[in-house]
Amino acid sequence: MLKKTKVNAAILIIGNEILSGRTQDTNTSTIALWLNSIGVKVNEVRVIPDIEQTIIDTVNSLKKINDYVFTTGGIGPTHDDITAESISKAFDLKYEIHKEAFKILESYYKPGEFNEGRQKMVWMPKDAKLILNPTSGAPGFNVENVFCLPGVPSILKSMLGGLKNEIVGGEPILSHTISLRTVESEIAKSLTDVQNKNKDIEIGSYPFFQAGKLGVSIVIRSEDKSKIDNCSEQILDFVNKKNIEVVEKN
Fold first, then answer.
1. Under a CB-based contact definition with an 8 Å cutoff, are residues 194 and 235 in contact?
2. Looking at the domain 7-163, which fold is it?
3. What is the pLDDT of residues 1-45, one digit of tens each?
4. Structure pTM?
């Protein structure tokens, strides 16, 4: 059986409210976990302001070096929602009313509610493909390998399921976490030795503070469960020799 090629993506968070700290970004985690489950590895995440040229330049840069680019934010009805027009310019496409999107929103709202502000949400790049929105009606869209989603976390999450057939991934990226009651300096050398023996496995260590005590979570990631299991055994071997308490394994 042929091994699937590795597939990668970038996530582009667009919005002054994220950069100012007024709004907390949870969309990165939602998209990354979903992509991992279908075999797409996130290479990088960028957060940029609502500035047209910045959006154009960043999209043009990311779409060349990634199989997929996911943008969030800036496709609503207000004056600072400029993502759709910026994507049009990035692809050198006409910015126009999307007839199918217009019909969807016209039927979604009650008579008289589909006002000029809401009609802004149906302006998109010419021939963009819609990403249907089961929560609030207003669709996202994609052009080539760039997928544009709303910034509202609950709405974004509801739209990902409809994209599954549009994204061609590799093997799902699996993970296993071992949480220890220790500090990073205590396990650094041993963990490095394990990583050196398993160069095709991604191993990360992340300190945590829980119930007044310090700990470290070791996360092992790979497309191959047998390699994760083997790596986990090597880690637990040195953990037991050092008499370090294992808090949790999952």
1. yes
2. Molybdenum Cofactor Biosythetic Enzyme; Chain A (3.40.980)
3. 344 568 999 999 999 999 999 999 999 999 999 999 889 999 999
4. 0.82
